[in-house]
Design brief:
Blueprint: E1 2-7, H1 17-29, E2 34-41, H2 50-53, E3 59-64, H3 69-72, H4 81-84, H5 89-101, E4 106-110, E5 127-131, H6 135-145, H7 149-172, E6 177-180, H8 183-191, E7 200-202, E8 222-227, H9 233-253, E9 257-262, H10 268-271, E10 278-282, H11 288-293, E11 296-299, H12 309-316, E12 321-323, H13 325-328, E13 340-341, H14 345-356, H15 360-376, H16 379-408
Parallel strand pairs: 1-2, 1-4, 2-3, 4-5, 5-6, 6-7, 8-9, 8-11, 9-10, 11-12, 12-13
Helix pairs in contact: 1-16, 6-7, 9-14
Amino acid sequence: MNILWITLESVLPANSGGRLGVFKRLEQVSKTEKIYLFYLYDDEEELCYAKNLKEYCEEVYPYKRERSLIKIMHKLLKYPYTVASREISHMQKEIERCIKEKAIDLINVDFPHMCVNLLKIKTTIPIILNEHNIEWKVYQTIASSQRNVLKKIAYWVDSFRLEIYEKQISLKIKFDKITFVSEKDMRFAIEHHFYSQEKCKLIPVGSDKQILSNIENQSKRKNIIFVGKMSYAPNVEAVMWFVNEILPRIQARYGNVRFYIVGKEPLVKVQKLAKENVIVTGMVDNVRQYYEQADLVVLPLKNGGGVKVKLLEAIGYGKMVVSTSVGVEGTIYADGETITIADEEADFADKCIDCLATTAEAKKRMSEAYKIYCENYTWEKIGKDYVSVMKDAVNGMFFLKNEAEEKQY
């Protein structure tokens, strides 16, 4: 298949959950299909990765996202900022040209934001939309956690406008398939009549299957880690809650415990959490060294949508995890059978203490969680499932065309 793939930001460097999810699917699909990639970038530094993406794509088309409020003011009357800043007229023209010249079989769109660039394009080519999250719901949860009144209002307004936009998109564009990474989000979309059930398909995010290391923490110190982009509001909220409310309770049991906050772009208030037993790493070249030395991985998330790549990544490294219900939602692990779940600070701390004791029961649950991961959440399996959905969309269109031609005679 020739696939025209549209996504909302540079997928390299794959240093956040969203980017990693897009890149890994693209990497797997590119093994058997031809990809023509269109994407936006924010910083000029990201342009250097275009040549790396050519290893996976036939052609790569990067475009600068317009962030100037003055330049997009007229668009803000129609769309929320996150959409208006991604409507790129010259990209739309190149998409039309690519469709005409490259015998495109399928259009694959990541995130509803980017659908704004298809509204003026008339085509019968099947289109797949990847709903990584229900974006307007994510904005709602971020708004509810804001202490700054102006920011709270801004997020609520954008959430409302984004919901309207997503409903309009579902009516204006004929999607042949809509994929979701979270079963919870997919059920919501079906029950609220955004999309019909027969068009929806669950394609979760995953993680690379790791060669598990036999390295164990040889020091008497207990190491706990959290991995995530540290300018993302739900991640910031999570580590602040853990450091201020949960870590002191753990320290009362394990005096020599160290918490690593591993992730790029730490905000000033995250940097201020750093002290002798709290390490804020900022951007790291490779998270493997932190996972290998970790006794426990925590996901103290209170907000945020979709499936958390950081959950699957931790399990892929064979690590014990303590998570809130938000951290495991949309996955098989939400049943609490193999991953420890706690939502209140005292309970969360107690569960961390139990896991750090590395009991036989804890090790058994970790082993079962890893087995589920291997069967359901490796990128190789997800890639094959995704290609299958794409072929179904293309074959379905081929069948409809033949049926229409037969009726003419």
